[in-house]
C-alpha cells in the first residue's frame, strides 16, 4: 500500500473490522483517538494539518448513522458541520475522502432495487442529514467515494443486533415486518468492500462517485430475525415464539424506515469488481464474536 490511510472511527465495530482485515494484508491505518467530546470542525482541522494522509476514511459517526435507535438533531447538525470541514480540508490538501452513507436516503416507495441514479427522498432527520452530507461531500471534495450500505449488522452491544438479541434472550414479543425488504450486510462484509475500494484507489484509479453495496439476497426483518435466532441457538436457549410477523404499515418506525430499501449493486461490481456476498454466510462469525465479547 503506497497511500497513507487515516481512519476516523477506528474504535467502532466497522472501524475495528476494517483494521482486522487490513492487518491480514499488511495494510495499516493511522487511527487517531477522538477528542473527549468527539471529532468536530476544529479538531479535524488540527488533525489534517498535522498529519496530511493520502486517504481519509470517515467512520467517526458510524454508530449514530447506522446503529443507534435514535439520534439527537443537534448532534446530527454538529456532525454535518464536521463533515463539511473535513471535505474542505480533503480538497485543500488534495486528499481522497471515503465516506459511508445509507439506503435510508430513499423513501422505499418503489419495489425494485434502487440504483445510484435514482432520486432520493429521505424520510426522517437522520436520513435527511445523511443526504445533506452526501451533497456537501460531492460539492466540496471531487476526489471522493460515497458508499451507501444496506442494513448493517455488527457485534456492538447497543447496536441493531445487540438490541435484538437482548430482547430475544428475555423472551420479549417482537413484531417484525414481513413485507419490508432490504439488504442485510454483516460488518465484516462491509469492511471487505471498503478495503477493496481502497486497494484500487491505491493504484491511482480515479473512480470517484457514489456506489451501493448490500449483502446478496434481499430479505425482510422477519426472515433476518429467524436466521439470527437459528444461529443464536448455538449459544443460548431461546424461544422462537417471540417473533411475530406484522405489516410494515403497523410498525412503530413505519414513518421513518423505508419499506423497500434494496440496493442494486451493479455499479460497484462493474467498476471495482466487487461481488455481493450472501449475508447468511457472515452470521456464524458475527454471532460468535458477539457472544464471545458480549
Automatic annotation (TrEMBL):
Catalyzes the reduction of dTDP-6-deoxy-L-lyxo-4-hexulose to yield dTDP-L-rhamnose. This is dTDP-4-dehydrorhamnose reductase. Keywords: NADP, Oxidoreductase. The keyword Oxidoreductase applies. One of its GO terms (biological process) is dTDP-rhamnose biosynthetic process. GO terms for molecular function: dTDP-4-dehydrorhamnose reductase activity. Residues 3-291 form the RmlD-like substrate binding domain. It catalyses: dTDP-beta-L-rhamnose + NADP(+) = dTDP-4-dehydro-beta-L-rhamnose + NADPH + H(+). Binds 1 Mg(2+) ion per monomer. Its EC number is 1.1.1.133. Pathway: Carbohydrate biosynthesis; dTDP-L-rhamnose biosynthesis. Belongs to the dTDP-4-dehydrorhamnose reductase family. One of its GO terms (cellular component) is cytosol. Its cofactor is Mg(2+). It comes from Pseudomonas saudiphocaensis. PANTHER family: DTDP-4-DEHYDRORHAMNOSE REDUCTASE, METHIONINE ADENOSYLTRANSFERASE 2 SUBUNIT BETA. SUPFAM superfamilies: NAD(P)-binding Rossmann-fold domains.
